[in-house]
Amino acid sequence: MSSVESTSAPYPAPAPTGSTDVDTVARVAGRIQANVEKVIEGKSDVVAAAIVVLLAEGHLLLEDVPGVGKTMLSKALARSIDSTVRRIQFTPDLLPSDITGVSVFNQSTREFEFRPGGVFANVVIGDEINRASPKTQSALLECMAERQVTVDNVTYQLETPFMVIATQNPVEMEGTYPLPEAQRDRFLARVSIGYPVPAAEIAMLANHGAVSPLDDLEPVTDSAEIRKLCAIVAQVHIADAVQRYAVALTSATRSSPELVLGASPRATLHLVRAAKARAALHHRDYVIPDDLRALVQPVLAHRLLPSAEAAVGGRSVAAILDGIAAQVPVPDPSA
What is the mean predicted confidence (pLDDT) over 51-65? Predict the structure, then answer.
């Protein structure tokens, strides 16, 4: 995500939050980022994106080739928060009940007892999510959208904060199942880590050679403080004109002839939530259009499907989305 800020004047209207509150968000986020970067070197933009998703109360999809640190980033972010963490290794034989939980008959009490699955935690790391079958993947749909699990007609609420950090390999790799559109739409953002620069890779050889740097990673905040920060972020002001700009961006994807599936209303909501979190990280209690533009690719791209003509013509979703965003007029801050 770009950190370039607009030089235009702030969008008018009083913000409900105070500068002290957003400064607190930025300060704690800075501690989390510094802690994660003890493990993940040279990827400040990726780490910042993960923190934006956390504070926007969303879920993160890390997509890249094997061995670039997707699971390491997930674990480092989880360990930076003093909260419950569960890791689920997605495999072809994983069952939906392994994720949600199952009711087991207790012989002594003669009653069924619920045994929670791996999803009952503040941070759930779903490793290689697209190696499980679509049936198992769908076990995450309810908990990601509604933060609850229903087993045998009984609904169990999940604790907040609740964040799913899923990793996946590109779908063209062997033994993978493409995530269905409904599943992808529940992830607030998708980011790729990419290969490290040579200097960072050399430092990795020195730091990761004997022991894992995760072993010495200590929490820098807890779940209670994260809940407070999320509440502050939710109150960050977004002017009517900027809201209309967000809707215009997502609406434009639905009418593009190069796309057969555009961004959903959920995508618009996720875009605004992420923009509020980004604004707070930049010590602002209001959203500007630059926040939305910086988040268009990570928040929207994974939800879109190109038309057959665009695919044959070699047009990537990222290029199509950049073209669409460039055509949407930016609102005037003085209006």
Answer: 94
